[in-house]
Amino acid sequence: MRILVAEDNHAAAQNLADYLTLVGHDVDFAYHGASALQLLNAHRFDLIILDIMMPVMDGLKACDAIRAGEHADTPIIFVTARDTLDDKLAGFKAGADDYLVKPYAVEELYARIQALEARNQRRMSPTLSFGALTFDSATDLVRVEGKPLLLDPTQKRIVRLLLSRAPALVASQDIAYDIWGEEEVDSSALRTQIYRLRKSLPEGMLITERGKGYRLNAG
Predict the structure, then answer these.
(1) Which domain holds residue 155?
(2) Contact indicator for 76, 48 with CB cutoff of 8 Å
(3) Which of 123, 157, 185 is the C-terminal boundary of a domain?
(4) Alpha-carbon distance 195 to 98, whole Å?
(5) What is the pLDDT of residues 43-56, one digit of tens each?
(6) Residues 57 and 94 in one domain
(7) pTM of this prediction?
(8) Separation between Cα atoms, residue 139 and residue 160, nearest integer Å
(9) Which residue intervals of 95-149 are DSSP H helices?
């Protein structure tokens, strides 16, 4: 998973990132709520870990803003020293999926992350669709108007990501990250995959916004 950690204590953020990286996740940092929102607007994250007491914008306000935006479904865990019942109720009211009080064991936080991940996977529909285009994760088939397309695994990943965001634009860097992760690849690699995918789709279904990314058109 790609995880955003918003924590104004740099040492605490680094310790948490070291552990999450060790168990196989990619981690980005923000040191206040406004910075977290900026990162969220530029990248796709699978989970957000928020402190509450941060400068510029606190975690509660950041959580409110996230739940009101296009990334409203992203799971959020508050990790904070605020430990009263009223604090916890305020966190859940703002939209948190979980709430953990400092000090904590990183193993407990990771167990909560795994539980959230499993819960979200159970909620995910096996079929994504937009217009005439569908992707069935159970059969790993992409169809247009019910007819299966012969796509390679990379092209299927692109279709799945575009369908999950449709009709919104998906940034080129988000598509590249979904395919290759942190691996450095030539920019032409994504263009080549998009070119091949476009040839397999009906004309006008895959739209390029130059310098920004790609989106699906229902026609």
Answers:
(1) 127-216
(2) yes
(3) 123
(4) 42
(5) 889 899 999 999 99
(6) yes
(7) 0.60
(8) 13
(9) 106-123
**Alpha-carbon distances, residue 176 vs 8, 108, 158, 196 (angstroms):** 29, 32, 9, 15
Which tens digits make up the pLDDT trace of 130-177?
A: 999 999 987 889 999 999 999 999 999 999 999 988 898 888 988 988
Task: Provide the pairing of β-strand 2-6 with 26-30.
Answer: parallel
The closest alpha carbon to 199, from 162, 165, 152, 164, belongs to: 152
Q: Rounded distance, CA 154 to CA 160, Å? A: 10
CA nearest to 86, candidates 41, 115, 52: 52
Q: Which two tokens stand for residue 31?
A: 């040191």
Look-up of token digits 């998906």: 170
Q: Are residues 196 and 99 in the same domain?
A: no
Contacts 24+ apart (CB under 8 A), 33-40: 33/6, 33/57, 33/58, 33/59, 33/61, 33/62, 33/65, 34/62, 35/6, 36/4, 36/6, 36/62, 37/62, 37/65, 37/66, 39/4, 40/4, 40/66, 40/69, 40/71, 40/74
Structure tokens at 142: 């992409």
How far, in Å, CA of 121 to CA of 138, rounded?
Answer: 13
Q: HSE-up of 137 (CA within 13 Å, CB side)?
A: 13
**Positive or negative CA dihedral for 103, 61, 32, 168?**
positive
| Helix (H), strand (E) at residue 17 | helix 10-22
* Domain match, 119 and 136 both: no
